[in-house]
Amino acid sequence: MFPHHREREQPIFSARAHVFQIDPTTKRNWIPASKHAVTVSFFYDATRNVYRIISVGGTKAIINCTVTPSMTFTKTSQKFGQWADSRANTVYGLGFATEQQLHQFSEKFKEVKDAARLAREKSQDKELANTALTIAAPQFSQSPPVMCVNGPEDKLFRSQSADITLSSEKERIKKMLSEGSICEMNLEAELFTLQDSNTKLVAALHEANANVEQWKKQLAAYQEETDRLREQVAELEAHGGHGPSDLLKDELTQSLEELEALLKAKDEEIHILQSKKAEYHEMEHHRDEAIHRLREMEMRNSDLERRIQNTEQNLSNSLEERDRMDNEIQRAIEILDIKIFDLNDLRQSLVKLIDK
């Protein structure tokens, strides 16, 4: 698929840079994707009206990213920048030799992103123009923390366990959000492809409908001319003429054959247009199905948003409860320390009293 796209895409900007990808395990460290600086290029696909960032290292594509309006290129240092690709579920980083090269790439990224936004706005239907899909994570139950007042060590163990639980739930939420975003992008790309095909078929049908009447008139004129020529041929045959009449007969016969061939070609074109019309209805059906799936996804998103809000509220309440219990434990420890001190003082007093 990659060579096929390259045949219909045109490069619009190129730069040399060291390519990195974020570590999928830690999400913090950078992993070099190329041993040396490679060419990173912006490509434009005029057929699909799509912009992509492509970089090839050897025989393998190390960057194959479709630019979307939601992407943002961030300069993290004077010679380094990065952006996130939710479809590939990764983050790309580029290291340039000079600050000027980084600035040029950043400006071109903004231009391409704006162009992609305009292309998307033109291709979207009015009912989908303001659609915003947000995939949220399902609600997780948060069990209350177990408290123990046996001493500072138990308090520390309980706090660390609660922190680990909260961190694991946050990681699960982030993972669900990432998977939902990828699902959303795939469904959105499928809808855009259907809309693009639908637009092309509609344009072809409009053009065909505009020409059908003209072709019908031409066919009627050809049929009249054919009938007239046939009558002339019949008259010549009835008179049984020779010489120039034979030559005229041959010319008329040839003209008749040409007209019949033209009529056959026009009939084939009409059949082709009728088949395209059937394809158009099928594409409309696919588009309606995609719209229905998007609406179901919106309803699911609304439900998931409510559930994630409840989860966040539960997490917030749990944190507040943990802080409150920490304060109570601290006060209990202070009271115990005072009681132990009082008991120790009482013990010393009793020892002195016994010695007397």
Structure, described:
The protein has four helices and eight strands. A hairpin with a 4-residue loop joins strand 3 and strand 4 (50-57). Helix content is 65%, strand content 15%. It is elongated. By secondary structure, the chain is α+β, with helices and mostly antiparallel strands. Mean pLDDT is 78; it is low at 1-6 and 129-159. Strands 1, 2, 3, 4, 5, 6, 7 and 8 form an eight-stranded antiparallel beta sheet that branches. The relative contact order is 0.08. The longest helix is centred in the last third of the chain and has 112 residues, at 244-355.
Question: What topology does this entry show?
Answer:
Blueprint: H1 2-8, E1 9-22, E2 30-32, E3 38-45, E4 50-57, E5 60-66, E6 74-75, E7 80-85, E8 90-95, H2 99-123, H3 152-239, H4 244-355
Antiparallel strand pairs: 1-2, 1-3, 1-8, 3-4, 4-5, 6-7, 7-8
Give the assembly state of these chains. single chain
Beta percentage is 15-25%
For the CA atoms, what is the radius of gyration?
A: 38 Å
What is the SS-derived class?
alpha+beta
Average pLDDT works out at: 78
Q: Helical element count?
A: 4
The sequence of SSEs as H and E is HEEEEEEEEHHH
Shape: elongated
Alpha-carbon distance between the two ends: 101 Å
Helix content: 55-70%
Low-confidence parts lasting 5 or more residues at pLDDT below 50? 1-6, 129-159
How would a crystallographer describe the biggest sheet? 8 strands, antiparallel
Structure summary, number of beta strands:
8
